[in-house]
Amino acid sequence: MKVEVLHVGMVMTNCYILTNEETKETALIDPGDEADRLLACCRGRRLSAVLLTHGHFDHILAVPELRRETGVRVYAPAAEAALLADSEENLSGPWQGRPVSLTADISVQDGEEFTLLGTKVRMLLTPGHTAGSCCYYLPEEGWLFSGDTLFCESYGRVDLPTAMPAQIGRSVRQLLALPPETKVFPGHGGSTDIAHEREKNPLAHGWKEEDAK
């Protein structure tokens, strides 16, 4: 499995391109803008899925064009359906002047596992940045795509629509219970790993090693 990142849109969102190098099947995680650029990067591959970690504009703006051009299926947390559908709340209208209202093709529940690109994917619901924010954990690869929940030595802001400030610490500590070698690919900024975040993340206080057992 190969993972690439493109920085897209006005706030340089990390859009991840996952490719099974044998089959050339490809998935995008959080295609926040620049659909033409994303389509060009996927040329010669078979785009089969888009995974959304949450509904804010900077993670979804390219989805309508990707759907029109490829018919790709969109996965998103069921708990984020209202935000995805509301162009005022997801800020695509107020902040971009490009209102986007989305309905997922496949709504995923907390802890649900599915197979994508020949590997297992587990959705972890991590409310805080938004009410329905989630992360995607690929246990066979040792990868976590953490959206705007967990950043390198930081975490997502909690002052935007549907944010749940009281939940963000609990969500981050839930992720810290993953294997320490797990590589973390966040929605913005550089990658990290769980071992580093256990030591350096400001929300790691209260996390105990026994939580990982």
Structure in a nutshell:
Helices cover 18% and strands 30% of the residues. By secondary structure, the protein is α/β, with parallel strands linked by helices.
Description:
This protein is 18% helix and 30% strand. It is an alpha/beta fold and 213 residues long. It has a single domain, classed as Metallo-beta-lactamase, Chain A (4-Layer Sandwich). It has a six-stranded mixed beta sheet with strand order 1-2-3-4-5-6, with helices on one face. A six-stranded mixed beta sheet has the order 7-8-9-10-13-14. It has a two-stranded antiparallel ribbon with strand order 11-12. The model has no long low-confidence stretch (mean pLDDT 95).
Dominant shape: globular
**What's the rounded overall pLDDT mean?**
95
Strand percentage: 25-35%
Rg, rounded, reads: 16 Å
State the CATH superfamily name: Ribonuclease Z/Hydroxyacylglutathione hydrolase-like
Describe the secondary structure blueprint for this structure.
Blueprint: E1 2-8, E2 13-19, E3 25-29, H1 35-41, E4 46-51, H2 63-70, E5 73-77, H3 81-85, E6 106-108, E7 113-116, E8 119-125, E9 134-138, E10 143-147, E11 150-151, E12 154-155, H4 165-176, E13 183-186, E14 192-193, H5 194-200
Parallel strand pairs: 3-4, 4-5, 5-6, 10-13
Antiparallel strand pairs: 1-2, 2-3, 7-8, 8-9, 9-10, 11-12, 13-14
List its salient traits.
Metallo-beta-lactamase, Chain A; single chain; 18% helix; alpha/beta; 6-stranded mixed beta sheet; 213 residues; 14 strands
